[in-house]
Design brief:
Elements lengths: L5 E5 L3 H12 L3 E5 L2 H10 L1 E5 L4 E4 L5 E3 L10 E4 L6 H9 L7 E4 L6 H8 L4 E6 L4 E5 L2 E4 L5 E4 L8 H6 L4 E4 L2 H12 L2 H7 L3 H5 L2 H21 L14 H5 L3 H7 L13 H8 L9 H10 L5 H14 L8 H11 L1
Parallel strand pairs: 1-2, 1-6, 2-5, 3-10, 6-7, 7-8, 11-12
Antiparallel strand pairs: 3-4, 8-11, 9-10
Length: about 350
């Protein structure tokens, strides 16, 4: 830890500000690149980083280098990309011209193929993929809160060795994996809940505590597991239950589910999905990079995924001004009819 790493966060929103704030508090030289309204908020309010375990970090606004200029990534040792998946290719094109040789680029994005898209545009750089298992919500301007548990999982690479102690010191221990494809497909099973949470209009803990909404998720997961089987995809998921058991566990009556899946319910009561936040803000969601991936995989193997197709359809309708709030019985009924 003798050399202080220079880190750029490209797409500094909820996850980017949270990860960047923790790294900066640990002593890293961090630059944040993102949207003008977040830049204004951080300048005025600073960065306030908290988590469900009680961590409380504040960085004054005059100590936060937040800019809209992508050239701020020039000369950085590590660039962490946290933009929405639809912007990944554009970010790769921008970074290709400004990064120093052998800079490390780490994708901490939702979706399966972002690191590949970045690597296509930056063949001279080390591009790695990672997975963020926890939820980050924006509680107030400049205030970002980790609402659920989990450690960052990052692709095994010698390039990460020098950064690993800094992440550890920041309270973001890295779990290194040689099978990130399996990790991403495993995480996808949990991410299939994003549209269900968004359409429920409930905090995550309240939604997952409701058996009817859990049955909706079980339908989507069981269908995804059938598609995985057709595609011979293996999954790696760092939870107590094997992935194939998830749908059955979700369908259990509440008293049994609460006893069997206590760890799954260690979620801050205010936590919500980023898809809910996108719908509330009138932004396009990442539904095509989540449930949409299952639908496209099914099509490529000539099998059907009607439940996940219906969730994609409902979220697109909500993006375009359609219904954004569904009760558990209503949503379950429409998904069962689709399936």
């Amino acid at each position: 830890m003798q050399h202080t790493p220079r880190v750029a966060i490209f797409g500094a929103g909820n996850v980017g500000c949270y990860v960047g704030g923790r790294l900066q508090a640990a002593g890293c030289d961090v630059r944040y690149i993102g949207r003008p309204h977040i830049q204004a908020e951080v300048r005025q309010r600073g960065l306030h980083i908290t988590d469900y375990l009680g961590s409380d970090i504040f960085i004054p606004g005059n100590e936060v280098e937040y800019t809209q200029d992508y050239h701020a990534a020039e000369g950085m040792d590590l660039v962490i990309v946290t933009v929405k998946s639809a912007a990944t290719a554009e970010v790769g094109q921008l970074l290709d011209h400004i990064l120093k040789p052998h800079a490390v680029v780490l994708s901490l994005q939702n979706g399966l193929h972002n690191a590949v898209a970045l690597d296509e545009h930056m063949p001279g750089q080390t591009v790695l993929t990672g997975m963020v298992p926890f939820n980050v919500i924006k509680r107030a301007p400049g205030a970002y809160h980790q609402g659920s548990e989990g450690d960052l999982t990052v692709q095994q690479s010698p390039a990460m060795i020098s950064f690993q102690p800094w992440f550890e010191s920041a309270g973001l221990p890295l779990e290194l994996s040689e099978h990130m494809g399996r990790v991403h497909w495993g995480k996808m099973l949990l991410n299939l809940n994003y549209p269900i949470n968004a359409l429920s209009n409930l905090p995550l803990k309240a939604q997952i505590s409701d058996r009817i909404y859990r049955r909706c998720l079980a339908l989507a997961q069981r269908e995804a597991l059938r598609v995985y089987q057709s595609a011979r995809i293996k999954t790696e998921l760092h939870i107590v239950l094997p992935p194939s058991w998830l749908p059955r566990a979700l369908e259990l009556p509440n008293f049994l589910f609460f006893a069997a899946a206590n760890k799954m319910l260690q979620i801050d009561p205010v936590a919500r999905s980023s898809m809910w936040e996108d719908l509330q803000a009138g932004h396009k969601t990442e539904i095509e990079y989540l449930n949409g991936e299952v639908v496209r995989l099914a099509e490529s193997f000539n099998v059907k995924a009607p439940v996940n197709s219906k969730l994609v359809e409902l979220v697109h309708a909500a993006e375009n001004g359609g219904r954004r709030e569904w009760s558990g019985p209503e949503l379950l009924s429409i998904l069962q009819a689709a399936g």
